[in-house]
Amino acid sequence: MNSRANFLEKRYRTVFSFVVTLFFFWGVALTLGDVLNRHFQAELNVSKSRSGLVQLAMFGAYAVMGIPAGIFLKRFGYKKGILLGLFLYASGAFLFVPAADARSFNFFLLALFILACGLATLETVAHPLAAVLGEESTSDRRINFCQAFNGLGGVIGPAIGSFFILKTSGSDQSDLLAVKNLYLVIGFVILLAGMVFFFVRVPSSLNSHTEDTRDSLPDKNNLRDKRLFSQNHFLFAVIAQFFNVAAQGGTWAYFINYGHEVMQFTDEKAGYFFSLSIAMLMAGRFVGTALMRFITPFHLLAIFALANVVMCLIVAQGAGWVSFAALLSINFFFSIMFPTIFSLGLKNLGKDVQQASSFLVMGVVGGGLFPPLMGLIANHSVTKAYYLPIICYLVVFAFGFFYPRLVERAKV
Fold it and tell me: Which PROSITE patterns has this protein been placed in (predicted)?
């Protein structure tokens, strides 16, 4: 890897700054979902396995919205794609108001699904946009840098969720009123961000990385998909992303349960520790971005995946602070996985990069399917549930380990 290559072209600084902000915004939303998971267990009397539907609603939206977002991006470009994502994000947040009034778990799931459709759209747009704002050789570092601010949003999400939501548990006030008010504020913030971005100039030249689809025929799209699916490194990246986000979704969904049941913390205190674990994720992304100047991204990915296999083994023992420290450490090693898998999967794809991005975003559905499965085990033992993510991290390790061979066989 050429460490001297330009990290970012100067003319794209304004656009890049806003892209970084987008990563921050969806970091807040994703980790707030894990706070809601625990809160709904207490306030709406749902089981751990059923509360896992919170993650299914959010990450399932990625499977539903991934391809449509990719098509919208190719037809209308980056700017309109971002505006669509922000609109859906705000709409879902505003739906929390009637959901809280109705005290309906299913209504909350619908609101989360629509909100997450916005997140899926933003991810489909933001990752390839960050990739094309400089040289391809530095795209790994650029996406990891953006994801570091996604980690910052992840720190703030559970922190404000713990303060405004979990702190009210068991009090005389309506616990869902806090949820409603918080998401009302979030909706207005995202709406304001969309209004500001409307006036940001996104160079039309950036859209030249994709073909004009206004006159595309179905058979051309089929040919494009066939060409894309012939790329072994891309296919493995989609699989690795599925298992990677599956591990993330399960680990985060029951973190607060682990703190409450194993460490005997209050939900609020466990929520603050969850925020600390996301701070470790953010630190890991900054450290990982720096290490990639000296260690190839796929090697670093394999090393971090093996480290998390060890961490999960320790967590599953339920050995007090030792296991809890390992649970906190999972996020440090998890840090680089999503952005690195994403950027490695997009390598050498040329004009197919935006279409590839939509499929990689669809891989995020793993984060929705895994928490209910872990919840079935967590209903009996939350510690033993952490054996399951080991399978996921072994898949991520295999992707990093075999990546050079996959690229060599790629049909460019």
Answer: MFS
Give the whole-angstrom CA distance, residue 134 versus residue 127: 13
Span 281-295, average pLDDT: 86
* Residue 87 CA from chain centroid, whole number: 19
Residues 107-124 as b or e (16 or more Cβ within 10 Å = b): bbbebbbbbbbbbbbbbb
User: Under a CB-based contact definition with an 8 Å cutoff, are residues 193 and 25 in contact?
Assistant: yes
| Rounded-to-10 torsion of CA 30, 69, 246, 279 | -30
Mean pLDDT within 158-166:
78
* CA-closest candidate to residue 384, choices 258, 260, 203, 246: 258
- pLDDT for the residue 70: 83
Checking if the pLDDT of 412 tops 50, the result is: no
Element (H, E) at 257: helix 255-261
Cα of 203 vs its chain's centroid, Å = 27
CA 366, CA 62: separation in Å to the nearest integer?
Answer: 10
pLDDT for the residue 268: 80
DSSP string of 100-129? Answer: HHHT-HHHHHHHHHHHHHHHHHHHHHHHHH
DSSP for 259-311, please give it.
HHHTS---HHHHHHHHHHHHHHHHHHHHHHHHHTTTS-HHHHHHHHHHHHHHH
Reading phi first (left if > 0) and then psi (alpha if -120 to 50, else beta), residue 269 is in alpha
**Widest CA span of the chain, in angstroms?**
63
Which residues does 181 contact at the CB level (< 8 Å), separation at least 6? 164
Q: Looking at the chain, how many residues does it have?
A: 412
pTM of the model: 0.71
Domain ranges of the chain: 10-408
User: What's the pLDDT at 209?
Assistant: 53
Instruction: Decide: 23 and 126 in contact? Cβ < 8 Å.
Output: yes
Q: Which CATH number fits domain 10-408: 1.25.40.390, 1.20.1250.20, 3.40.50.10730, 3.40.50.12280?
A: 1.20.1250.20
